Amino acid sequence: MSADHSHDHHHDHEHGPDCGHNHDVVYNKVVKANHKVAAVLLRNAKTIELTFDERQEVPHDVKATDGSTLICHLHDTVEVGDKLVSNTNEWAIVAAAKEELFEVARGQKGFEEFLHVAGLNFWPVQLNETGARVVASHECMHMLEHFELKFSTLTAAMLEIVVPELKHHDCCDHDHGHDHDHGHSHAHEHKHGPDCGHDH
After folding, report:
1. Could you tell me if 31 and 87 lie in one domain?
2. Residue of 92, 99, 15 lying closest to 61 (CA atoms)
């Protein structure tokens, strides 16, 4: 019985891309990295490499490392190590794509001011012993030149974001966003109520 089952599954899989069936596979659920997942479920999992920006807002079409395209409908930000699950119970693992970064050595005049500006602009910054790495952008380059900071360009994965001065600020923002969402849904229910009552 199990042999037949695996054969059928294999057949469906082959059949998928040809008949456009593949489009029905939508990755719409996130399982956080710290959540234990049975190894057997991840045996055939695909890996998707996303840049920092793509992890904040996952694109609709994502290329997996095996060259296939996955369709994602996700509203949450994802982190490296998170797993995505499709409506057909297929799994994909989020990895960090290499992208262009600026590396700025600390100890330069203007370094702290630059970090402050980066924080205000919500630019992803990765701090280490030698300095900071920032996701490359034209705005960022202009700001580095404005502060007359020496920097180098490299291609690497942007992993954890650490901006110590702004930890508190982030918390405030997060709470505020949450309240706003709550208020919004409340307003929606409230609006919905009278309409229903009226029809009734």
Report:
1. yes
2. 92
Cβ(80)–Cβ(94) below 8 Å: yes
Q: Is 81 within 8 Å of 47 (Cβ atoms)?
A: no
- Separation between Cα atoms, residue 127 and residue 193, nearest integer Å: 50
Q: Which CATH number belongs to the domain containing residue 85 in this structure?
A: 2.60.260.20
In this structure, what CATH number is given to the domain that contains residue 145?
Answer: 3.30.70.790
What pLDDT digit, counting tens, does each position of 95-139 carry?
A: 999 999 999 999 999 999 999 999 999 888 999 889 999 999 999
What are φ and ψ of residue 22, in 5° steps? -55, -30
pTM of the model: 0.66
What does the DSSP assignment read for the chain? -HHHHHHHHHHHHHHHHHHTGGGG-EEEEEE-TTS---GGGGTT-EEEEE-HHHHHS--SEEEBTTS-EEEE---S---TT-EEEETTS-EEEEEEPEEEEEEEETTSTTHHHHHHHHHHTT--EEE-SSEEEEE--HHHHHHHHHTT--EEEEEEE------GGGHHHHHHHHHHHHHHHHHHHHHHHHHHHHHHHHH-
In whole angstroms, what separates CA 170 from the centre of its chain? 17
